[in-house]
Amino acid sequence: RARATTRMDIKERIRRSPREEEAPVAAPPRGRKGGAAMLLLRWSLPAAALVVCAVLLLMLAGGSAARRGRLLDADPSVGVVARDDPRLVRPRDEDGTSGSPEVVKDKLLGGLLVPGFDEQSCLSRYQSVLYRRISPRFPSTYLLERLREQEALQKKCGPHTELYRKAIAQLKSGQDIKVMDCNYLVWTAYSGLGNRILTIASAFLYAILTNRVLLVDGDKGTADLFCEPFPETSWLLPSDFPIKQFKNFSVVSPESYGNKLKSKVVHHSRPAFVYLHLAHDYSDYDKLFFCEDNQHYLQTIPWLILKSDNYFVPSLFLIPAYQEQLMRLFPQRDAVFHHLGRYLFHPTNAVWGMITRYYDSYLARADEKLGIQIRVFDTETGPFQHVLDQVLACTFKEHLLPEVNTQEPIVSPSKARSKVVLVTSLNSGYYEEFRNMYWEHPTANGETISFHQPSHEEHQDSDKKMHNRKAWAEIYLLSLSDVMVTSAWSTFGYVAQGLSGLKPWLLFKPENRTAPDPPCRQVLSMEPCFHAPPFYDCKAKRGTDTGKLVPHVTHCEDMSWGLKLVDQS
After folding, report:
1. CATH of 349-515, one of 3.40.50.11350, 3.90.400.10, 3.40.50.2000, 3.40.1390.10
2. What predicted TM-score, i.e. pTM, was given to this entire model?
3. Quick one: DSSP state of residue 248?
C-alpha cells in the first residue's frame, strides 16, 4: 500500500510539474566567539563544491552531446523523472530484477520537437517520453534543419496570413498563374484511420521535398485526434477553401493529373490547381506522378490536392530528383515513418486521457508488455479458430508467450515475472479465449500472464468520433509494447510498429481459412508497406520490378507486390 501511494504521489508531481523548492539556509549562530569565521567557512565550502560540480556537469553534458552529434538544451529538452516512477524503462538483469531506471529522458525526441508550445493544450507532446522507451534511432542533422525550415514556411504561408490570402485570391481567379512565394499541398481525408495517418506522413515528406505548405482536411475528426504539429500556425485547411468539390474528386475527375496526361492537355496550360489521385484504384496515367519529368511540371503548379490511402514513400525514393535529399534526410532508410510519425502525430488531450488512464491502470507495472494486433479480412466477424491457432502457434514458436501446463494445477515459479498482453481487435472472442486459457491453467514456467483489450467495436466505422478516438488510443497503446505481433496488410499495425521503433512478428494472411505454416516471421524493417506501387521504368518507358531497382526498396513480407524501405547497412 505504501509503494502504491508513493507511485501515485510521483505521478501527481510529474503531471503538475512544480518547481523544486529551495531548502532554507540556516542562520549563523549569534553571540558566539568566531561567528564570522564560522559563517565564512560555511559559505565557502559549498560554493567551491558547487563550482566543481558545475564544471563536471558541463564536461559530461558536452561529451554526451558530442557523442550524439547534437546539442541539447537542458531546460526545455530534458524531462527529469522521479527514480521510482513505474513508467520508467528498467532494463532486466539476469536474475529478472530491475536494473537502474533511465532517469533523464529527452522530451524533444533528439530535436524532432521544438520547445515553446503551450504544454497544457497538448499534454502528449512532451509527456509521451514518460511512457515510451528511448528510441535507438536518432534523426539526422539535415532532417532537423529541414523540419525547422518547414515550420518557418508553415508559419509564413499558413492560414490567415497575407501570403495565404494572396494565394487564395489567385486560386479563385484561375487566371494569370505565375510562380508564387507560397505553394501548397492539400491532403484530403480518405479511408480508415491507419491509412489516413500513413498518407499524411507521405504527404508531409512530399511537401518537404517540394517546399510546399501542407494543409490537411479537417474531415473525419482530424482536429479531434491530433494536436497541431507546427508552432504558431495551423495545418488545418480553412473551411472557406474555395474548391468546394475537392472532397468528391476521384479517379475519373477531369481535374486529375492522370486524366490531363491521358487527354494530352497537361503541357498546353498551367491551371491554378491539379488533383493528384494516388489511391489504390489509380490508373496507369496517375502512376506517372512518380516519374521525374512529371515532377518538374508539377513544381510549376501552386496548388496540389492529394487523395490517397497508400504509404507511397518508398516510390519517392525511386525518383532521381529526390534521391540525394532523401539519403541526407534519412541515413537509416527504415526510420522514415518512425521519425515523421513521432514528429506529426500527438494525441489530443481527449485521446491522451484515454491512453494514460488505460496504461496506468493495466499495463504500467508489468515486467514485459506484449502487444497482439489481430485484423481479419473476412466478410464474417469471427472469431475464427484458425486465427486463434495461428496466433498461439506464432507466440509459442517465437517464445513470446509461455505454454500452459495442463497436468498440474499450480506451478511454482523459479523467477517471479509478470507479463501483460494487450490485445487489439474488432472482435472480443480472441481475447476471451486467451484469457480463459491462462486463467484455467498455469503457465509452464510459472510466469503470471494477464490479458487486456480496451474495446471491441465489431465493425470499422471511420466516420464516428468515439470510434476514431478508440482506434487512435489503441494504436498508441500498442506502440508502447516491448514486443509486438501484428497482422498482415493492416495499416493499424504499420502505424503502431513505426511509432514504437519495433520490428514486430508479422502474422501471415490466412488462405482458405487455414492457419499458414509458418504462422509468422519478424519483419525486415519497421517501415510500412506501400500496397499499390507502380511497376514502371520511367526512363525506359516500360514495365519493371520496382522492388529490385535499389537495395533499400524491396518487396514487403506480407504483400509480395508491395514495396517497403529497409536499411541494408
Report:
1. 3.40.50.11350
2. 0.83
3. G
